[in-house]
Write a structure and sequence with these properties.
The chain is mainly beta. The chain contains no helices and 11 strands.
């Protein structure tokens, strides 16, 4: 599975962005997917995860209620809708794929896309 994330940018606090991750490869529709983020000087952390069919999701406590992960297997794309953005959401965002049903463990993700920058100004 090859992944390409896009949709990042500069936004004011309180604004919204939607990230997209386009995937290629036959196994996308059977792969769990995740969005991660890494702020400068910090570790890469899970933001949200979704199972292969899109009906089970998991969110980091810091984004729950503000972010929504979804997927369209017909388009081989996973999305991250980010609302009510805060300056602390500033990071490079990555999408990743796993052979597992769904997992929150970063080590379980085998495929990674290039990151997309998200900057939230105060």
């Amino acid at each position: 599975v090859q992944l390409q994330a896009y949709g990042g940018g500069l936004v004011q606090a309180g604004g919204s962005l939607r990230l997209s991750c386009a995937a290629s490869g036959r196994t996308f529709s059977s792969s769990g997917m995740g969005w991660f983020r890494q702020a400068p000087g910090k570790e890469r952390d899970l933001v949200a995860a979704i199972n292969w069919s899109g009906d089970i999701t998991n969110y980091a406590a810091s984004v729950k209620g503000r972010f929504t992960i979804s997927r369209d297997n017909a388009k081989n794309t996973v999305y991250l809708q980010m609302n009510s953005l805060k300056p602390e959401d500033t990071a490079v965002y990555y999408c990743a794929a796993t052979k597992w049903f769904m997992t929150t463990r970063i080590g379980d993700y085998e495929y990674w896309g290039r990151g997309t920058d998200v900057t939230v100004s105060s």
